[in-house]
Amino acid sequence: MSDPKAEKPTKQWILNAFTMSTPGHLASGLWRHPRNRSSEYTDIEYWTDLAKVLEAGKFHGLFIADVLGHYGVYGGAGNIDRGLPGAAQFPISDPLQVLPIAAMAAVTKHLSFGITASTTYENPFLLARRFATLDHLTKGRVAWNAVTSHLESAARNVGLETQIPHDERYAMADEFLTATYKLWEGSWRDDAVVKDAEARRYTVPGRVRGVDHVGKYFKTAGPLTTEPSLQRTPFIFQAGTSTAGKAFATKHAECMFLAGMTPQSVRKSVDEIRHLATTHGRPRTSIKLIAGILIIVAETDELARAKYEEYLSYADLEGSLTLFGGWTGTDLSLIDDDDDLQFTGPGAIQSLVSSWTATVPGTKNTKWTKARVAQELAIGGAHARAIGSPTTVADVLQTWITEADIDGFNVSYAVNPGDFEDILRWLLPELRRRGVFWETYLAGTTRENYSADGLGPRLREDHPGAQYKWPAE
Ligand SMILES: Cc1cc2nc3c(=O)[nH]c(=O)nc-3n(C[C@H](O)[C@H](O)[C@H](O)COP(=O)(O)O)c2cc1C
């Protein structure tokens, strides 16, 4: 009989490295910093070296965000120039490329690769084929961040006059995922591929079929041309925050990214997401929830703070305002340099300012000019920050885990891989001492490592894609 007084095992946190295939992901201007290699993002060694660092620390995954256009809000609609000097997520290259992912897979054994791809601009069959190919080459270590895309410039890049309306993009996304589940889960019977040399049969006839998906937005006949991979459906990430976004995410996502500056604000989303999951017939805890955070850690609080200040001296504030424009649709170039945005700024700024004044030391009596706001956004964007010694940072993270009821973190950086190396050196020993971060991976595939439920690499039975599985008879 189990002892009712026995302590529950300590929750094990998820750590994801948050990156993008660009010199200026969430820290415009920092590409110039001598410790930052992000401007080498076009070299395969940049990716393989980063993957090795992350796997040495046993990070769960390397996640690559993506957008399909320039930000084009700050400085007037369509403006290209303001974000260029700081490399504010521009230039950017395609994360869904087999070669760099396969190269990183070749130098690691367990690290997962989360890849962003758009349901608005991709094609379900072609995307299913690319992910299946990568799931093979990585031995089941890919995740798909299924995004609906939010940049006007992306729509124009692919030949549309303007964006498809927000909620309709989510309706398309829902159908897109259904079509890909049919291809991944339903077109090859589990025992279709036998590679039986004596019987001269690679695949058994009758065990591969078309899927004939005909929907409102997409048509695909199938079968998928790629043979079944370990996970079939890649592990699904999502980050929708609107009503339509949350409805979509809580139906399909296996892990969600949450934005928010305070544990209290994120807790509201967490409670809502867990409830919404149950409305789709999924258990409350079936979706792993991870919050974005910038971690700057050093031997002491003073050294960490000094490092952050030194990073800030490289920041390109026009770049931060460019990113802010793209995220919120608000052009701060229209606002006077001297305005106190705490009172006169758009809603998104006022709520950011109130969370900064609540959480960032020494900001209570600040006048929140445009430059000041840009500085707060300059490194790590609109995510929380944990800056300090190993114990300070671990305490901040623990507060988030407890108060926001989340499962882990999407960790951004100012310099790369330097900030991740610092996390390996200073923070991970402290987290392991506290028993909250694993010594090593649980298994080989993404789904097994993130879900940590011992249920194997395939979609869970309560997931909507599971109904398309075609088991051996
Ligand atoms: C941590 C995080 C990472 C995200 N990464 C991307 C990304 O790489 N590409 C993208 O187009 N959108 C990305 N988003 C935006 C979301 O996909 C989504 O559009 C946004 O959260 C707004 O939600 P809504 O579309 O439901 O309004 C990200 C959001 C968060 C919080």
TrEMBL record:
Record family assignment: Belongs to the NtaA/SnaA/DszA monooxygenase family.
Top-level taxon of origin: Eukaryota
Keywords: Monooxygenase, Oxidoreductase
One MF annotation (Gene Ontology) recorded for this entry: oxidoreductase activity, acting on paired donors, with incorporation or reduction of molecular oxygen
Region of interest (Disordered), ranges: 453-473
Residue intervals of the Luciferase-like domain: 36-399
Record organism: Pleomassaria siparia CBS 279.74
Name by which UniProt lists this protein: Alkanesulfonate monooxygenase
Gene3D superfamilies for this protein: Luciferase-like domain
